[in-house]
Specification:
single chain; globular
Length: 337
């Protein structure tokens, strides 16, 4: 998602709309003047633009233009395209945890001088994908930093990280986009005004999630799985759904994300902040009449915890079985009420 948004013009959108307020400008100034610290922790939900902003700062670090980052020089282009020799990006592959050996390899590479004698930048996303051993290994590097290396640690949930890692970073939380700015950006991408307005409302200012809302029709398989989860109304349904989910482990993170987003939309409708029509013909559009805000919030918390357990490589099947039965208990209560 991040790379696609950058190519679609998200990087210039950050500045063009004046989205980056004083604290953003202060941080950019550190990189323009070479006063950056050795480690930054960017916190915020998936899709808010953490990797995009990290690449923006890295571009400022390497840029050869007068106004850094210019976005046009060879250095900026290589950073934007993920091809810069002095920039190392570590991402989770196939929902597998990042091992301690991988982190050791990166630390060893970072300790060598880059070909052009400049700094090295290391981006890790998401930090939750590191095993506890890998986090501890990284901690040693943060405690005794190489002056030629800048770490960008990107986290969807900073509370799940070791306190010692957080304490050794400059922590920066990315803000949601204001609705008018987000709708303007989506319109520039070519989406119709009514679709952009709906996506902006449902996303809560999360640019990546807004784009997902607009393109989710092409994500039919995950949407179908979500529909089946929401339709569970008996123990037999729960068992059938569990068997179906056994084959969907590869899409675990995305399915849980869609479920969490749906619950958040239900809460907004229940609180009167969104019109009921936004739930359309979804399975819970009428069922949640019997639900309370607290119950929906509790279910959202269960989904959030399931996502954290998934990051920790807890058995997917067992994880989802527990979650499905929590949903079934709630649905039965609502139907009785």
């Amino acid at each position: 998602m991040s790379g696609n948004m950058e190519n679609a013009g998200l990087l210039p959108a950050f500045m063009e709309y004046g989205l980056l307020g004083t604290r953003y400008e202060r941080l950019i100034g550190q990189f323009r003047t070479g006063r950056q610290v050795h480690a930054y922790l960017f916190a915020g939900p998936r899709g808010i633009g953490k990797r995009t902003f990290a690449r923006y700062l890295v571009s400022a670090l390497f840029c050869e233009g007068e106004q850094k980052p210019c976005g046009e020089c060879a250095q900026c282009r290589m950073v934007r395209e993920g091809k810069h020799a002095s920039v190392i990006e570590i991402t989770q592959e196939e929902n597998k945890a990042v091992s301690v050996d991988r982190i050791r390899e990166i630390i060893t590479l970072a300790s060598t001088h880059s070909l052009d004698g400049r700094e090295r930048a290391i981006l890790i996303e998401p930090m939750e994908s590191l095993t506890p051993q890998a986090q501890n290994c990284l901690l040693k590097s943060l405690e005794d930093p190489n002056t030629n290396v800048v770490y960008f640690l990107l986290s969807h949930d900073a509370s799940s990280l070791l306190d010692t890692i957080v304490s050794r970073c400059s922590v920066f939380k990315l803000n949601p986009w204001p609705n008018d700015i987000l709708m303007g950006y989506l319109s520039r991408l070519g989406y119709p005004q009514d679709a952009a307005t709906r996506a902006a409302i449902l996303s809560g200012g999360n640019v990546g999630e807004a784009v997902s809302v607009l393109t989710e029709a092409s994500d039919g398989n995950r949407q179908e799985v979500l529909e089946q989860i929401l339709k569970v109304s008996s123990a037999r349904d729960a068992v059938r759904c569990s068997a179906m989910l056994k084959d969907s482990a590869g899409n675990a993170e995305q399915i849980l994300f869609l479920l969490e987003r749906y619950l958040q939309q239900c809460m907004l409708v229940k609180a009167g902040l969104l019109p009921p029509s936004l739930l359309g013909e979804t399975p819970w559009s009428s069922t949640i009449d019997g639900a309370s805000l607290q119950e929906l919030a509790d279910l959202t918390d269960h989904v959030f915890r399931a996502r954290k357990l998934r990051m920790s490589n807890v058995n997917w099947q067992s994880n989802m079985d527990q979650l499905i039965f929590k949903l079934l208990e709630a649905i039965n209560r609502w139907q009785r009420s």
